[in-house]
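Need tokens for this chain, all 350 residues.
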Amino acid sequence: MGILVSLLVLSGLIFFHELGHYLAAKLMGVYVEIFSIGFGKRLFTFKKFNTEWSISAIPLGGYVRMKGQDDSDPTKKSDDSDSYTTKTPLQKIFILFSGPAFNFLIAFLCYFIVALGEPPILSPVIGGIIKNSPAEIAGFDINDTIVSINGAKIETWKEMTHHISKAKGDLQVGLLRNGFFEYKTLSPKILETKNMFGETVYKKMIGIAAAGVSHPLKFGLSSTLHYAWEKTVLATTIIFVGVEKLITGDVPAKELGGVISIVKLTSDASEQGWMSVLFFAALISVNLGMLNLFPIPALDGGHIMFNLYELITRHAPSEAVIMKLTIVGWVILFGLMGLGLFNDINRLFG
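Here are the structure tokens for all 350 residues:
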């Protein structure tokens, strides 16, 4: 069941990405020949809205083939008025950007639906105290709930850590213990920890661990929209920084995952319920949007780069340059896919 959910999620995200290209192309008056989910042999095809709609054998992507545009042969052109190649650079950029834009929109909608479902968030309940830490010295105890820091109301673990990291000087911490309020004064220390990329970082902490207690977040309409926007921006930032760290070597290449990792993680998320599936679907959708905007020929970002060049210089790159760069782009793309697949298999078999 988990694998089926994974394939449905991936296919759905690919469909919406290509739908963005399709709708933008139709809006710009471009004839769309084929709309395919998957690559390779077409298993199921029907014609609607003057376009062939297909499901193909290899479900690792999809494509919209427009008149006058063919990634397998970038030199193919058409001078008809409904051809992609006769459109202005700005119109082409609009068509190209619309696919990734739909991925970000779908991520936003996923987070919006999650917010409507009152997602659980970690409560500021203490589950562990580090020996000789500021918290132990100040007399904190297991199961204490932190309710305020320097007069600011605390409702989540995230709010608590934010106030601690930004604090200057001593903290006055309000605790709820066995139904009674207590106040403790302590000074945070700069302690060593790991960030989400496994890097060693130093930050202000008081030496406590969460008890794992959570409570539902309840939103009004405006806060629901803010939550969805904040989560979409956060997911985009995480992926951007992660890629940057992969390029610089701060995160080893062995951490790169491929389609097997995506299927497995989506399958695992499906076991935790619909909210976890939507969370992970949003993250994958942002990932697809970001990946396609990379300036690699053969991806949307590569084509956008060519059109920006034409917009600035007033003439298109030569066909020979486009062909060579596209081949390089495919090599890079298949190399990354191969590395991700190798890492996935290596993780599966230890």
